[in-house]
Amino acid sequence: MNIVKIVFLCLLAVLLYALMRQLRPEFAPLVALAGVGVILVQLIGVLLNVSSTVENLISLAGLEKENVEILTKALAVCVITQFAADVCYDNSFSSAAAAVELAGRVGAITLAMPMIKAAAEIAIGLINA
Fold first, then answer.
1. DSSP assignments along 23-53, one per residue
2. What torsion, rounded to 10 degrees, do the Cα atoms 23, 28, 31, 33 define?
3. Nearest-CA neighbor of 58 among 40, 70, 44, 46?
4. Which of 14, 20, 53, 80 meets the CB 3.0–4.6 Å disulfide criterion with 28?
């Protein structure tokens, strides 16, 4: 990953955001979102490499792929939720940010339900044994 490239993109986005906030405040949030979008696109290649490395580690460790997929999806929900909430907070829309955070928590718990059920079954089996 070329961190220098990402740093320059961040600085450019900040400068454009500051300029738009002075000239056309209604477009400043759009500039911020566009800047973040460009930076995230730059990170896609890195994320794909990380994903393949994690898959290799999972196969080496002998972990159940289903559980790792659940955890990965829950992590993605958390990251996306945090990003959306931060955008809402940055635009002084804290009520929407709170709703997004709650939705993310519910989504993560919903995704984890199969693992919670399996853990409860194991606990009940141990108690009854």
1. H-GGGHHHHHHHHHHHHHHHHHHHHHHHHHH
2. 180
3. 70
4. 20
Residue tagged 């940055």 (tokens): 90
pLDDT tens for residues 49-99? 887 888 888 888 877 778 888 888 898 899 999 989 998 898 888 999 999
- Residue range 17-34: mean pLDDT, rounded: 90
pLDDT at 1 over 70: no
Q: How far apart are CA 68 and CA 14, in angstroms?
A: 36
Q: In the predicted model, what is the mean pLDDT of residues 103-110?
A: 94
Query: Shortest CA distance to 74 belongs to which of 102, 112, 41, 40?
Result: 112
Residues in the chain: 129
Which token pair is 25? 């405040």
